[in-house]
Amino acid sequence: MPERTPETHVIDFRAAERLLAARDPRGAVKLLDSVIAAHPENTAARLLRARAFFAAAQLRPAELEFELVLEREPDNAFAHFALARTFQRSGRSEAAVRHFRLAAALDPNPEYLRAARFDPGA
């Protein structure tokens, strides 16, 4: 296997984004595993891997990654929203509501507001 460099990690990250967009979340996770092994502090790679886990219906790994992102970036509205969706799919509605509300409080995105039931038109 060729030596991994920062440049190849960037290439893998971008390829993982494309794989996720092409609905190949498992392929994205495979590429991101090596990126995260080399750069465990990279929050963007962890967030992308969390999204890939979610898309692959691997809810527990998705939950753990979203929580790690939120430990590092507690004001990341998208991570709160995505964690809430993960809890929702896991049947944990009480935990989901809490994170939907945090997402909406951090960012008045209409989708977040609707999910948190803050939207008067909902």
From TrEMBL:
Which keywords belong to this entry?
Answer: Repeat, TPR repeat
- Spans of TPR repeats, please give: 77-110
Q: Record's Gene3D superfamilies?
A: Tetratricopeptide repeat domain
> Know the name of this protein?
Tetratricopeptide repeat protein
Which species is listed as the source? Streptomyces sp. 900116325
